[in-house]
Amino acid sequence: MSTQDSTRLYCSICKRRVKGFKNRSGLQQHETLKHSSYNTLPSHIQLVSDSELSHLKKAIVKELQKRLKNHHNAIRKQVFSIHCSEDAFVGIFKNHITRYSPCGSSYLCQFKGEKAFDEIGKILDDKSWGERNYGKG
Ligand SMILES: [Zn+2]
């Protein structure tokens, strides 16, 4: 517990904690508005072994391929979840995280344009993780 007014939430990114927020959504909104490009990784992240990371990468590729197969005509966003630790996720995507939200404990990575395909292939150590020319996205 902090010594600050415990009924209010404070932004952990702002150095001067002048303003507290009544609830989580207020804080989240503030983060989105003011810190949309904040991507300093939290200090609690631990290094994950390469073998664990490569295991996870394979699992991600497998899941992606399953999705692409089931929806090969659909050019839209696909959502899937995979069980992994925060440390492992950061271990894989650390150089590609464009936004970190301390309030929501969430990370954002974006891959766009022509290089995106190869970029993801490099991250996942699998150049054939998906089908190229898969629509426009
Ligand atoms: Zn702030």
Automatic annotation (TrEMBL):
It comes from the Eukaryota. This is C2H2-type domain-containing protein. It comes from Rhizophagus clarus.
